[in-house]
């Protein structure tokens, strides 16, 4: 069974998965209308104090008025649906990119950490795929966008593992027990296996090694599919234990790029 993707297939899968991820994020923002209003917990009149330039602050004051912000989110949701149903275009991706930058500013750079990072990465790659074709041709532009997504995603997995390997709490296994004790279903039951140092140590090093060797996914398409399958299970477990649903969908949007790149001569030669 061949897991290889053609260039158009990889682009279309990326667009569909990203559109789904973006729609979920946007619906969550729309449901936070009360919390982001002028009297809410995350009111813009409080956050605007971080903007030092008066002219920029005035511009953002207009863009982040509750009614305007809600309109932007509604248009963002419609744009995500259009991306899912019809595919991307330069105008559509430019709108989503600029809108995403505004949302990042609204949340002082990040609302949900790593998922915001991957959302911006995939969005940038898709923008490259649709913006560079007039200079380099459609095929090369799509390749550049997919490689950008792939390199950023693979590197982020590797860096996550490397950082864990440098921290004594992860090397000893204590960090895993600490994190799971603070999960939405925590603390762990007294008889839970991960309360045992040996099992926690094994689990911790399993994650560390898997993340550190993630670049091996680019050796072959089969490897890429296997690594992405494990990653999907990992992100689902993060969602299950910590409620971070955005992570799973944001990272899945990068998987078609990883699988396609693994099937290219550069990926096969690593």
Keywords:
16 helices, globular, 270 residues, mainly alpha
Largest sheet: none
- If you average the pLDDT, what whole number results? 89
Note the gap between the termini: 23 Å
- Total beta strand runs: 0
- Shape verdict: globular
**Number of separate structural domains:** 1
- Contiguous low-pLDDT stretches (5 residues minimum) are none
Give the amount of beta strand, in percent.
Answer: under 5%
Assign the structural class, choosing from mainly alpha, mainly beta, alpha/beta, alpha+beta, or little secondary structure. Answer: mainly alpha
Radius of gyration, whole Å: 20 Å
How many helices? The count is 16
Strand and helix order: HHHHHHHHHHHHHHHH
Q: Helicity level, as a percent range?
A: over 70%
Describe the structure in your own words.
- The protein has one domain (7-268).
- It is mainly alpha-helical.
- The protein has helices at 7-31, 33-36, 44-47, 54-63, 66-86, 90-106, 114-131, 133-136, 138-166, 168-172, 174-181, 197-212, 221-242, 245-252, 255-262, 265-268.
- The protein has 16 helices and no strands.
Write the layout of secondary structure elements.
Layout: H1 7-31, H2 33-36, H3 44-47, H4 54-63, H5 66-86, H6 90-106, H7 114-131, H8 133-136, H9 138-166, H10 168-172, H11 174-181, H12 197-212, H13 221-242, H14 245-252, H15 255-262, H16 265-268
Helix pairs in contact: 1-5, 1-7, 1-9, 1-14, 1-15, 5-6, 6-7, 7-9, 7-14, 9-12, 9-15, 11-12, 13-14, 13-15
Give a quick summary of the entry.
This protein is 75% helix and 0% strand. It is mostly helical and 270 residues long. It has one domain.
